[in-house]
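Translate sequence into structure tokens.
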Amino acid sequence: MRPLYAHATPSFPLHAPPAGKDRATGKTVSRPVFLRRLEGIPVTASRIPGTLTASAARHPGSTTILTGVRGRIRENCVTLPPIHISMQIKEVAATLERFAPLSLQESYDNAGFQVGLTEAEVSGVLLCLDVTEAAVRAAAESGCNLIVAHHPLLFHGLKCVGDATQPERCVRLAIQLGVAVYAAHTNLDNAPGGVCFTMAGQLGLTDVRSLMPQHRADGLDAVGGLIGCLPEAETATAFLDRVKAAFGAASLRHSAPLGRPIRTVALCGGAGASFIDDALRAGADAYVTGEASYHHFFGLEERMMLVTTGHYESEQYAVDLLASILRDAFPGLTLRQFGSTNPVFYH
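Result follows.
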């Protein structure tokens, strides 16, 4: 069980520490007025005697009490010992779903819980793009009992759990090692500020807007790809160099370079070929996605350049995004980022 420290509302009562002397004045201080974590982020505490305001922000180590002395804030020598309060796996899921509601996922998808018990207490989270046997073992070995991945482990249903396929082996191993699995897939792609926005940020696009907004029955709008502008128009060669560097791609596949400068760029992570026509209608000079089939490269001529980076390359920054969401919500929660799970090699 991990220690919990005061950070923000909602509040619950905590026992105040015993009286201590203020280092600056030498006076005895009986009740704390302010509380902070050791790294120095100020947070509000209750002024009601005997209580402090706290929430589910986690951080290892002790907490320093700050006391109010004649309207000033002074650090006092009294420290608050760790407070142990559990956080359940479902709380992590709820945080992710506030950012990327499951209703934003595509009809074919299976985002959400894949394996495990939602009531279990979280010991740590391992983040990855794909769930592999190596990732499950790494989670267990590092003390993490929850994996949060971008791609669902159970994209298609299983008729048995054995050793025949990679998903079967991963499910069996996760159950054996007590590791739960959660996926944020097309709901994270379609969320405002989601995967497409990380791609746009990597490319340095400005004036970004939805390429094909999709209104859902619950009133939410799915992004459906993005379109924006480069800071300045550039040649096709310069643009390809930009894309290659932005995604760390070993190589790019692309249609014939345009005979004009590229300024307006549309994009979608992963297998985004379904938005090619939308990008054309929106007047994009180039469309960047993870993968497209051979025949998608035909018929574009001088209208638009199609560029594919590789599926993994286009979505790799989803792991950083997931880490950012959880770090902001739970500052002290143990997070581990697994390395590359890209199954594609280049010669």
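Note: The first strand starts at residue 3 and ends at 5.
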